[in-house]
């Protein structure tokens, strides 16, 4: 299973370092943002299993960040809010904007990690079992549980890695995924041959595109890969 990937949006450098070191010691991958603006940019451009978000940020505070992510993101990103504000009204304000969990300062690093990991896993379990995109010749469906795939009603067979690539492309459609992002989501920190992704993309195209008149696996030069499917 790929590592849990966390985005930490916190302007306190010491606290940020302490949280990051502890979460990384638990085997997770952590990216850091010290402003709300950078946090929004990273969260929308990259894939994260969980965002740990401080309320008190300069210029754009955590509530504004959460509101933007809920408006702009093409998927639900689990968010844990860190705050010194512990009144019910403060928490209700956050929940009304889409915060998934709250942790008030001061807190134990162990508790933050347990909540973060649980939220990431729960979101994965609650995801739709079947992903569906497109119509007609480009109608594509993928069942996460049974790993059954169909294009235009015809069942297809994929090996595990091409299956993961297709699932990631469907989950993030219409956004393109970079080569580095795909490698990170599939292999994590495990070393892999530089041509491995290219080989698996070839196998995916062979199964998904070759039997059909219109290809749907699209290479976007300088960026990565996306699905050429409307809707």
From TrEMBL:
Matching entries from InterPro entries are given as: CheY-like_superfamily, OmpR/PhoB-type_DNA-bd, Sig_transdc_resp-reg_C-effctor, Sig_transdc_resp-reg_receiver, WalR-like, WH-like_DNA-bd_sf
- Which sequence positions fall in the DNA-binding region? 128-229
- UniProt domain Response regulatory: residue ranges: 5-120
A GO molecular function assigned to this protein is: phosphorelay response regulator activity
A cellular component term from Gene Ontology for this protein is:
protein-DNA complex
Among Pfam families, the record links this protein to: Response_reg, Trans_reg_C
Q: Which GO terms describe its biological process?
A: regulation of DNA-templated transcription
Query: In this protein, which residues make up the domain named OmpR/PhoB-type?
Result: 128-229
- Residues where 4-aspartylphosphate occurs? 54
Q: What superkingdom does the record give? A: Bacteria
Q: Which UniProt keywords apply?
A: DNA-binding, Phosphoprotein, Transcription, Transcription regulation, Two-component regulatory system
Its protein name is XRE family transcriptional regulator
Q: Which organism does this record belong to?
A: Pseudoalteromonas rubra
């Amino acid at each position: 299973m790929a590592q849990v990937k966390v985005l930490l949006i916190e302007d306190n450098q010491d606290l940020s370092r302490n949280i990051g070191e502890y979460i990384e010691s638990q085997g997770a991958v952590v990216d850091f943002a010290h402003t709300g603006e950078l946090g929004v940019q990273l969260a929308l451009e990259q894939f994260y299993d969980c965002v740990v978000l401080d309320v008190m940020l300069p210029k754009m505070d955590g509530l504004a960040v959460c509101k933007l992510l809920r408006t702009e993101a093409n998927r639900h990103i689990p968010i844990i809010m860190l705050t010194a504000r512990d009144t019910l009204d403060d928490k209700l304000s956050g929940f009304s904007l889409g915060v998934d969990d709250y942790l008030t300062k001061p807190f134990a690093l162990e508790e933050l990690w347990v909540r973060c990991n649980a939220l990431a896993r729960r979101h994965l379990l609650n995801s739709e079992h079947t992903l569906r995109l497109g119509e007609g010749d480009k109608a594509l469906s993928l069942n996460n549980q049974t790993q059954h795939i169909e294009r235009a009603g015809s069942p297809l067979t994929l090996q595990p890695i091409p299956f993961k690539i297709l699932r990631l492309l469907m989950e993030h459609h219409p956004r393109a995924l970079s080569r580095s992002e795909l490698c990170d989501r599939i292999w994590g920190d495990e070393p892999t041959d530089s041509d491995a992704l290219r080989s698996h993309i070839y196998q995916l195209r062979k199964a998904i595109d070759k039997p059909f008149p219109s290809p749907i696996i699209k290479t976007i030069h300088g960026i990565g890969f996306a699905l050429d499917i409307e809707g």
